[in-house]
Give the backbone structure.
Amino acid sequence: MQSQLLKENIQMRGTKTILAVGLLTVVVGLTSAASAQGVKFVGVGSSAMYTGSGVGVFNTVCSQRVGSDCRHYTIGGKNAANNQNFAQAVDSRNVSIPVEGGNLWVVWDNNTSPISIWAYLTVDSIVGNRCFFASPRCTLQLDSGVLTTAGQNRIASSLMFNEQTNLNQADEASLPSAVLSAVQTSFTAGLTDIRPEDAKFETNRILAAYNATNLNGLGYGVASANCPAATSLIGCQIKGTWGGAATPIQFNIAGKDPFTHTDR
C-alpha cells in the first residue's frame, strides 16, 4: 500500500511538472515577448490545441501590443515539388525513427526583422509527449518550399483579428527566410489532452507482445512477417481506418532515455 501511494505521488508530481512546464512556456515565455527577442514558443502535440492556440497567440499575445506588426502563416501536407512534408517533427535519437508530419501555424512580429516568433505543429498527444520528453527533444523541421508557397489559411482568417488594424487577417503569401531560419529548433513545450503517464502507458501497451487474454500488449513492438523490423523501441506503423498513420516509439517521462541513456 505504501509503495502504491509513493508511486501515485511520483506520477502526480510528474504530471504537474509537464503541465507547469507547458503553461510556463506559453504564459511566461509569451508575456516576456515585449522585452526579449527571438523564438518564444515552439509547441508540438494534439490537433485539438491547434486552432485555439494559434488564435490566442495572434489575437492576444502578439497583436494587442502597441506598435506590433503581427503576421501569421499556416501550412500542412506535402510539397508537390519534392513530396516532402512542409512541416514535421524530427526525433534524432535513432535514424530509424520516422518523421511525423503535421499542420503548422507560425506567428511573428515584424516582417522584415522578426522580434518575436511563436509556432505550433500538430501530430497527436502521444507523439507530442514523446517529442517533449525525448532526450534530446524532437526538433521542428520545415521544407524550403514554405519560402515560396502561400499560407493555406488552416485557421480561418475570420478568427484571426489584428488589434492594431482592427481587421481580420489572412495568412501571408510565404514564410520569411528569417522566420524559417529561427523557428527550426527544439520544441519547447508539448501540448496534450491526455496525461503524460497515460501516453507512456499506451506506448508500453502498444509495443508489448500481444496478449489475447487481457490485451495488456498489442504486439506492435514484436517482429513479424508483416513487420520484420519492429523492435521493443520502434514499433510497426499503425494505420488509421480513415487515413493517417503513426509509429509507436518508446520514451520515458522520468529517468534515462531508452535510446540515448541520458537523464531527462
Notes: The radius of gyration is 20 Å. The first strand starts at residue 38 and ends at 45. Helices lie at 2-31, 50-62, 125-133, 177-183, 196-207.
